Serine/threonine-protein phosphatase (Oldenlandia corymbosa var. corymbosa), 388 residues
Amino acid sequence: MEPAALDRIIERLVEVRSSKPGKLVQLSEAEIKQLCVVSRDIFMKQPNLLELEAPIKICGDIHGQYSDLLRLFEYGGFPPKSNYLFLGDYVDRGKQSLETICLLLAYKIKFPENFFLLRGNHECASINRIYGFYDECKRRFNVRLWKAFTECFNCLPVAALIDDKILCMHGGLSPDLSHLDQIRNLPRPTAIPDTGLLCDLLWSDPGKDVKGWGMNDRGVSYTFGPDKVSEILTKHDLDLVCRAHQVVEDGYEFFADRKLVTIFSAPNYCGEFDNAGAMMSVDENLMCSFQILKPAEKKNKLFYLVARCSRHGEDTLGGKLGSLSLLFFFIPSRRCFPFKYKSCTALLNLSNRGTKVTLGWCGHKRLTFMSGYQNGGRDFGGMLLIVA
């Protein structure tokens, strides 16, 4: 890839930091495919267990929150001012997965010995096919581009060792891990299997009430207790396990007497969690400090909602109740017309007579105040005032 062409891509991706968050950067399909191909070759030339040196900055999940990724670089210094290790989950859920992964791949190509990316469980076709990245690729480009990313993701390394003392991965430990050479010898390119060492490195979670290995509520891999963290540190003469994979309120959270740390770098995750994001800086003496990205302040949004739906089910008093599938129209309270509408499915719990909404949800968002009226028969309609 021509250095000048790469620099132009990076410049276009970074210049939006002075714009309103959410502004798209429309690279060409050819440019993005070239990022995938060139970075894939670099990943394959480097080991599956990266051996890195401090000082370095470590970041957790980004999940397509591109403006927050740019904030991380503003705080920590844009490459090559600082060395970086990202722990995976670059895509899905956020609105700008393409910008996020393109900038990360571009920096990997530009600074291959100073900028490092590990694989997360969302760098997997079977996962990002469902949670947003596939749809974003298809909407903005085509499915072929998503497949190019899949081939690239299948080549990502899965763990890193910093100065032989800090072991990093996306998920966590594995009962199949007895020697670090097992990580080095994992085959690539590869999809993520449903079980085994690779699966666990990307999927497992610590559990404070767990001793040994336990079941994981995700339905994949395991949970592990503090005893297993101590065991692997002692066996391999390590000081710390560093991982991501879970939302934590302050952006970072220690476990097992500070022998393990979880880092999550997407503040106000999905717009639903009030969490901070964090970046961990490791200095030359392996002292760890944290830079915190505070979540943006939430403001209540006032909408009028026009809805019409059918109800099913009766309560013991004969009133209508149940989950209502609504096609509704968000109308800003400023009453500006014409307005754009958005269809969505909401869950509303009606009072026992079916004439008053007592609680509502739209997606993951709780509708904290609602008023409306019954429109006769089996329908509930009219104007609902919502503060969300």
User: Anything to note?
Assistant: The radius of gyration is 24 Å. The first helix runs from residue 3 to 14.
